[in-house]
Amino acid sequence: MACTENIVPSGAIPKQSCTNQSINDNPWQHRLFGKQLLHCGGSDKLVDVNSAVIGDKGTMCDVIGVYFSFINPGATCDDFTRQLVDLYGNINAGISVNGDHGDHGDGARRKKFQVVHVVLWSNVADVLDFEESFRSHVADLPWLAVPNRDYERKTRLTRRYRIKSGVPTLILLEGTSGSVVTRGGVERALADPSGSNFPWRASHPKAALEDGPLMPCGARDSNEPMLHEELRHCIKGVYFSAHWCPPCKAFTPQLVDTYQRIRERGHSFEVIFVSSDRSEESYNVHIESMPWLRIPFSQEERRKKLAIALDVQAIPTLVILDPRDNIITLEGRAELLEDPEGLNFPWTIRLVNILTEKYATSLHDAPAIILFVEGEDCEVQFGESVLLPAAEAYRRDRPDYDPNYDDPDGMLHFFIALDGETSDILREFVGLDDAVPLLTAIDIPRGVYAVMEDGAEITVDSVQYFIDGFRSEKLPTNKIAASQKCKSDKA
């Protein structure tokens, strides 16, 4: 497990696409990959996404793997790519995987596994010819690839799945819905090269948590072990860390401080340490300053099962679970760093958020309803009162949190934008004046925005009417200023 931090592209407002594309009635794979992909294997043939993932009998491919690989000049294929080719061939050749031979009784054999390759470079300074490097890399591969020149698509996919530079990553998606099966496809394939358990759907974390006692760490005020059942009323933070990892050593004292503040305010909160240390000696040093519980170092299989169940790809990672061990957030570390006092603990998903730099990057991936206000407390309360009913209606049939739930077709965010730098940058980027209150629908991926008509009263009903009009594309829209500039620069 690599000691690496989540790398999210910086900057308050993401780079604008120069292409506009209608999203009405598009299947999820069009939203994610565009309408055409390159067929690898030495040809420049573009194929329709639907024909690539839906068989000749109209049956959907079971699993789609989005494979991000990084190459150096002259490289043709790394070790994992070769292993993935073998896995791809085995699964699609009708070899039995979990008892399913792919034969569905009508003479048609359904493709179980398709790969969409996103080729990136780890050292761009030395690349003389990107197109030639790309062609060499995919020449002998049996699957599909995002066209090399589709830089915007690559950027969006890299942002969406938070790909770390230089780290090959395989994201497995459900063919029917696009929801995430696992973000750890590389690790799972290395551990199971034959694909006998493909696509490695994770079990519930409760099974690993219940599998034995939880022991006290060195700075805990009690030496008594605890059973998972004794934590049934607690919010739990499952902390994956290692003593050899510098970001972990920096984060652990911050977690200790916030943990103590949260408990002092009366919250039932417990942390469970899951080690990635390489030796028991290192492990013992690491737990000396921790005031919480731990899974014993000797229980390696239990620790691995928990990492798989929570789809942990890097350390340090802090996953927050509710009392029933359902995931509240996989981003506990980021939440804690933004809220070190733990005032918003347990960091459940809010339907309406204040637009900060943290959230601004998400505007690159999906449309948002944004109400601009000056920033007084009463205006924030007003913003929440008129946006929340619409956000609740929109989210009514969606899970509160599910790490595998991912709907690229219908995602819509709701924000209140206060006076400040992030709002100023966004206004300039889109081409908005400085009026407040101002209700907008901003769709950066499509390069368009809509504004509630001047003088209209902002109420619960008018907000819902505005949102319905925007989603059905019945509202008049304007081109985003940065999009127009981008087109003019290319002309």
What would the keywords be for this entry?
491 residues, alpha/beta, 7-stranded mixed β-sheet, 6-stranded mixed β-sheet, globular, Thioredoxin-like_fold, Thioredoxin_domain, thioredoxin-disulfide reductase (NADPH) activity, Thioredoxin-like_sf, Nucleoredoxin isoform X1
Describe the structure concisely for a colleague:
The chain is α/β, with parallel strands linked by helices. It contains 16 helices and 19 strands.
Overall description:
InterPro entries: Thioredoxin-like_fold, Thioredoxin-like_sf, Thioredoxin_domain. This is Nucleoredoxin isoform X1. It comes from Fopius arisanus. Mean pLDDT is 83; it is low at 4-25, 95-109 and 399-406. The strands form three sheets. This protein has a seven-stranded mixed sheet, with helices on both faces. The chain is an alpha/beta fold. It is built from 16 helices and 19 strands. Strand 4 (113-121), helix 4 (130-138) and strand 5 form a beta-alpha-beta unit. 31% of the residues lie in helices and 18% in strands. It has helices at residues 28-33, 49-53, 79-92, 130-138, 151-160, 185-191, 205-209, 246-264, 280-286, 300-309, 332-338, 357-360, 377-395, 421-430, 460-471, 481-490; strands spanning 36-39, 46-48, 63-71, 113-121, 144-145, 169-174, 180-182, 215-216, 235-241, 269-275, 293-294, 317-321, 327-329, 353-354, 368-372, 413-417, 438-443, 448-451, 478-479.
